[in-house]
Predict the 3D structure of the following.
Amino acid sequence: MAKGKSTAFFCKECGYESAKWMGQCPACKEWNTFVEEPVSKSKNKQQIGLARLGEQAKPLAVSQISLDEEDRIKTGIEELDRVLGGGIVKGSLVLVGGDPGIGKSTLLLQTCKCLAELEKKVLYISGEESLKQIKMRANRIGSFNDNLLLLCETSLQSMEEAIKDVKPEIVIVDSIQTICNDEIDSAPGSVSQVRESTNRLLQIAKGMGITIFIVGHVTKEGVVAGPRVLEHMVDTVLYFEGDRFASYRILRGVKNRFGSTNEIGVFEMCQEGLREVKNPSEYMLEGRPENASGSVVACAMEGTRPILIEIQSLVSKTNFGMPRRTAAGTDYNRVNLLMAVLEKRLGYPLSDYDAYVNITGGLKLSEPSLDLGIVLAIISSYRDQVIHEDTICFGEVGLSGEVRAVSNPEQRVQEAVKLGFKTCIMPQVSVDNIKKPDGIKLVGIKNIKDLQR
Ligand code: TYD
Ligand code: MG
């Protein structure tokens, strides 16, 4: 019965394959994600063995493997290099995901421009835009030299031929959802197409030592396969995110076989493409209100980078039985928890008050070190007392109101000094442990009760 069967069911979220339809995916537990698709008959051919990719199949000791400094290419876009772990690794496959219109194509075209200027041969393959459209975008970004070649193509086989022909060092594929592998019957963007195409690109990258950047759209619903399917195949996964209404964009490493995943790169979308934001703290604090209660600056860490952000809070008497609470840019439950701590430990009758907490700038942060900032902002708004604008704070708040140490206190304080802050409210333990910097007063506290002084 199953003999002539040439279709299978795939989970759109994680790519799980099943012979029959299921309501819930047993792998990722998502509901209603199964779609029926033809399966390729030539599947076994696609098996990858590293030996076939041109590498030796003989076991080697780690010390026998040589590494050249050359194996990483610095793009010159510092924010991107950092997220990649210090530059592009030769022969790696990088997935750049993000909502439509966020600026993935722009970022990659700009990367191409920098690489081309470094005398690297770059091939930009677009399945989404025509050459004229790419040219229009390129005109906004600047002038390009002839090391960058453009190609409009959706067929995987033709793409492969072009790559073999041009022998570029870096290839951009924009986007994986538009690629069509002629050997597979299903439509471009379907799970099996996306998976097989990525597999093929992986072989090309590893076999020829080319770095390939793949663009993938993120769609929660709809027929297009989410790039989540690809995440475990590629070496590096970067997400480009940001508010569509705010001009800044954040490039975040989600997976990286060659570096840390905690790094972020900050960009700003301008008329002439993306601009690097070298000092995000300054950017985030722009336009801060003066002498306003409920506003405080806190220091969060994004990877190895301290970022200063403003936390705002508005606490007002509730008019209905149920107080309203919202948290924008941070964890709602955390805000509720901190308010409960304030109520219990400091005796503030917050259950009669609405509270709105907002991290300005549109960043989404859920680091525990912001606790103290949130608490201070709420107290400031509740008591309608202004916190001096030269003050910064960080620290985790526990359930009994104790203020606990957080990581990298020294770096956080240094960032505060750099931006001219004069007072830092922080956990007492950290004050004792770090070297006293000049120009800033460190105020150590053990419990949030100390804040009432
Ligand atoms: P794009 O790179 O096409 O997004 P994606 O490839 O992720 O879908 O970015 C498109 C947006 O960027 C579009 O809304 C216009 C804006 N943009 C600028 O603001 N300035 C520029 O110089 C460019 C090239 C684009
Ligand atoms: Mg695009």
